[in-house]
């Protein structure tokens, strides 16, 4: 298989997504990451568009990049103007990049109705703009905007625009499915037509309006295209561009094209999540290859099978793209899920152990009562421990009372009293709090801290309440989910009840019990 060059346009096309606004600093950080990923071209932006992009090009020159060539993006000269006098082309040259990408019109509709010029003048605009950039020693990538739409309506003219770019000296001609409306077979036919019309190496640039951008890019590669343009996570205007993350994984792992090294491929998840973070967008947990759920297994039958052989339900080894396999525990679990989850926490269990079967049954019953264990692994591990006949819990809450009082003109106060069995003794404590859960937590800690001083490091980082049957109004059943940390490890627990305090107590008690036991590697 021949080589394929990766061209990233996150900093230009990606910033056209609604909701994204990169700072110059953001763009420089992303550039560095893309370079580490082994991207061959990084399009930094449009220097003729705004001061931020112009500053990016000034600053990126000082970066020492190992793989990436920086490209500046702009359009062909305006109609009726000399290329030398066109301010956008001047800004492109002033950007001082080794590569320049210039976009021109391939579709006659655009020439007549958008540029409002003649077909001949558009050909001259393309030829002369490319030639000017070449005369200044740049590597010139010509982006044929709307190539596929143009080729479908007026093939002769669309192909004539490619020839104009070739005559101007373009190093690459990139066929764009700008409106994202093409089907894979139309892409293949368009690429074949372009191959017959010009001899310059071809590239592909697709948009995802029919959810086909990745498939269309791969179809073009199969037809001989040698450059693929896309954005990290598919960020882009409207519904987005071709997702370069999936394209890289597919080229390397499915098509055997060595576009990045194995080590670079293993950074794919990190880069995808990094760019989401910088873009201030939640990372899509269901994103193929790199999402947190991309290799998450929930169905009992699936988990039982992957415990025997992982390829039974995984199309690749997740480590190849820097991701990890995960096992979820829920009412859809079998014994395999429990055994696998326990193993993640350092507990080796025999699936034939009656405790395992008991926990599977209990999880199904509790989920029916409103518990939800998928993201409350610590509560699952505690159930396993408690199911064992020799397990002695570090403490047991026997009784509790919580009072909330509000008197006219004064803020509400909460007070809790607990009765706890600890090392065979009964301990009574009471404490105040700024709310009932806080008071209960304080009273419990007062009882436990003298015996378990390590609990002073344990604190809640998140507390969520989910109403399970809102139609029942104030009588609704609620689920309380707590995330805790001891500064090193993070764990999650759950409780459910029609009483919000009881649900909180269950989740809180699990959180503290899990936090006490230092023998288990909590994650
Ligand atoms: C397919 C793509 O994604 S291309 C990238 C799209 N991205 C952007 O547009 C973001 C950056 N753009 C900008 O900052 C501004 O639009 C600028 C600086 C480029 C131009 O701004 P203005 O001069 O105010 O023009 P405006 O944006 O209103 O209109 C675009 C003009 O470019 C012309 N034009 C569009 N494509 C081309 C082209 N390939 N070659 C020459 N002229 C073109 C249009 O006909 C229009 O001309 P008109 O003003 O005579 O009607
Ligand atoms: C060049 C470009 O971004 C497009 O045609 O979609």
From TrEMBL:
<comment type="pathway">
    <text>Amino-acid biosynthesis; L-isoleucine biosynthesis; 2-oxobutanoate from pyruvate: step 1/3.</text>
</comment>
<dbReference type="InterPro" id="IPR005675">
    <property type="entry name" value="Citramal_synthase"/>
</dbReference>
<dbReference type="InterPro" id="IPR000891">
    <property type="entry name" value="PYR_CT"/>
</dbReference>
<feature type="domain" description="Pyruvate carboxyltransferase">
    <location>
        <begin position="4"/>
        <end position="269"/>
    </location>
</feature>
<dbReference type="Pfam" id="PF00682">
    <property type="entry name" value="HMGL-like"/>
</dbReference>
<keyword id="KW-0028">Amino-acid biosynthesis</keyword>
<keyword id="KW-0412">Isoleucine biosynthesis</keyword>
<dbReference type="Pfam" id="PF08502">
    <property type="entry name" value="LeuA_dimer"/>
</dbReference>
<dbReference type="InterPro" id="IPR013709">
    <property type="entry name" value="2-isopropylmalate_synth_dimer"/>
</dbReference>
<keyword id="KW-0100">Branched-chain amino acid biosynthesis</keyword>
<dbReference type="Pfam" id="PF22617">
    <property type="entry name" value="HCS_D2"/>
</dbReference>
<comment type="similarity">
    <text>Belongs to the alpha-IPM synthase/homocitrate synthase family.</text>
</comment>
<keyword id="KW-0808">Transferase</keyword>
<dbReference type="InterPro" id="IPR054691">
    <property type="entry name" value="LeuA/HCS_post-cat"/>
</dbReference>
<protein>
    <recommendedName>
        <fullName>Citramalate synthase</fullName>
        <ecNumber>2.3.3.21</ecNumber>
    </recommendedName>
</protein>
<dbReference type="GO" id="GO:0009097">
    <property type="term" value="P:isoleucine biosynthetic process"/>
</dbReference>
<dbReference type="InterPro" id="IPR036230">
    <property type="entry name" value="LeuA_allosteric_dom_sf"/>
</dbReference>
<dbReference type="GO" id="GO:0003852">
    <property type="term" value="F:2-isopropylmalate synthase activity"/>
</dbReference>
<dbReference type="InterPro" id="IPR002034">
    <property type="entry name" value="AIPM/Hcit_synth_CS"/>
</dbReference>
<dbReference type="GO" id="GO:0043714">
    <property type="term" value="F:(R)-citramalate synthase activity"/>
</dbReference>
<dbReference type="InterPro" id="IPR013785">
    <property type="entry name" value="Aldolase_TIM"/>
</dbReference>
<dbReference type="GO" id="GO:0009098">
    <property type="term" value="P:L-leucine biosynthetic process"/>
</dbReference>
